[in-house]
Design brief:
It is built from 14 helices and 15 strands. The model has no long low-confidence stretch (mean pLDDT about 95). It folds into 2 domains: about 240 residues, Alkaline Phosphatase, subunit A, CATH 3.40.720; about 140 residues, no CATH class. The strands form 3 sheets. Strands 11-10-12-1-13-14-2-15 form an 8-stranded mixed sheet, with helices on both faces. Strands 3, 4, 5, 6 and 9 form a 5-stranded antiparallel sheet that branches. A two-stranded antiparallel sheet has the order 7-8. It is an alpha/beta fold. The relative contact order is 0.24.
Length: about 400
């Protein structure tokens, strides 16, 4: 049986007073998702348990049926895999952002979504500055990059920058959680401090300030870990998978799961992403793969920006330009795969950060009786036939295992 999973990152939310206590999903016009809800089984899915970090890595591991308690070793190792970095068993990998700092506080976790071209030049110059240290800075997409420290200790307390906008940086510095990790925490904090000296008057940042853009004036490392041990989907289920995403952490997760990464020109991870290209790539990949995992980051970024209008627009464009296009393509090809739609976690507009609340989910499968739900949103899902899913419940239902 062929399977499509569409993940709208951060799409779920909480009631918004400006929407008469509706969520953005409830307020958005989403006929394609609503059609799938009418034809499928709906419910809620707890993708992040209370004792796990509230982030996309943990949530997407859960969606794919992995136990984050044993497989989550930080975002850095997943993003390293996406960027083609081969880690030894003793290499520490961490996510490292280019952020905008202002008056000693984190102003933006993304330096105003700096372009990849600008970011790569900054990262090259920073690597040159730190050439005497035993580290590697690996450029990624936009503000998202990877730090590799051979022999580093991952037992650290780090602050995800998107969760601490406006907070004093000196209160968020990396802390060791064991005496053995102190040298690694000292290294991380040194990178933060020295990067600000290098970046303060960098020509790229001077130009950005002149143009009214935020400067990328500090590195910020977080989510460190060592290489995880994960069975592939071929080993677990005997199926071949593909992943379509602009985000390195999801690509890396797909690589560890044994998926083929399908590139899409114009996929940005933002609201200007190539929705149609992702839909077409999904339909093409479905011809040669058993499962296609389509991930869209745009609603999450809008949530972090606390931009209500943009989040609703991202949800509607995901529905119209990607999901509807997939449905039409399936009809043209006379295919009837299982199709599931869900957010990975909420990113409430009121908070601008990830939360652990269960998310709505719908699974439409051939020869499966639909429930009575006719709208895809957080409230309607509560009365769906799936009830509350946890652990590997979702992937086992999707794969009909």
């Amino acid at each position: 049986m062929k399977t499509i999973i569409v993940v709208g990152d951060g799409m779920a939310d909480s009631p918004v007073p400006d929407l008469d206590d509706q969520t953005p999903l409830m307020a958005a016009d989403t006929p394609a998702m609503d059609q799938i809800s009418k034809e499928g089984q709906n419910g809620l899915f707890r993708t992040i348990e209370p004792d796990m970090p509230a982030g996309s890595a943990v949530a997407n591991l859960s969606i794919l049926g992995y136990d984050p308690q044993t497989t989550f070793n930080g975002r850095g190792v997943l993003e390293a895999a996406s960027l083609g970095v081969t880690l030894s068993e003793t290499d520490l990998a961490a996510r490292i952002n280019l952020i905008c700092a202002e008056d000693g506080r984190i102003r933006s976790h993304s330096a105003g979504h700096i372009s990849s071209e600008e970011a790569h030049q900054l990262m090259r110059d920073l690597q040159n500055h730190f050439r005497h240290l035993n580290i590697k800075l690996v450029p990624g997409l936009s503000y998202r990059h990877v730090l590799v420290v051979p022999g580093g200790d991952p037992n650290l307390k780090c602050a995800p920058p998107h969760n601490h906008i406006g907070e004093p940086m000196n209160e968020l510095l990396v802390q060791p959680l064991s005496p053995q990790a102190k040298s690694t925490s000292d290294l991380f904090n040194r990178l933060i401090a020295e990067s600000q000296t290098v970046l303060r008057d960098h020509p790229i940042n001077r130009k950005r300030v002149t143009e009214g853009l935020q400067p990328a004036n500090s590195l910020w490392p977080w989510s460190p870990g060592l290489r995880p041990k994960m069975d592939t989907f071929q080993e677990r289920f005997g199926i071949r998978g593909a992943v379509i995403t602009a985000v390195d952490v999801i690509k890396g997760l797909g690589i560890y799961a044994g998926f083929d990464v399908i590139p899409v020109k114009g996929a940005t991870g933002l609201s200007d992403t190539n929705y149609e290209g992702k839909a077409d790539a999904c339909l093409q990949a479905l011809k040669t793969h058993d499962l296609v995992y389509v991930h869209v980051e745009a609603p999450d970024e809008a949530g972090h920006e606390q931009n209500l209008e943009l989040k609703i627009r991202c949800i509607e464009e995901l529905d119209e330009r990607l999901i509807q296009r997939i449905l039409e393509g399936l009809q043209d090809d006379q295919l009837q795969p299982v199709i599931a739609v869900l957010p990975d976690h909420p990113t409430p507009i009121a908070l601008g950060i990830h939360t652990r609340d269960p998310v709505p989910v719908v699974i439409r499968a051939p020869r499966t009786e639909p429930d009575q739900v006719s709208r895809f949103d957080e409230v309607s899902a509560k009365s769906g036939g799936l009830g509350l899913l946890t652990g590997a419940d979702f992937i086992e239902r999707v794969l009909q295992k």
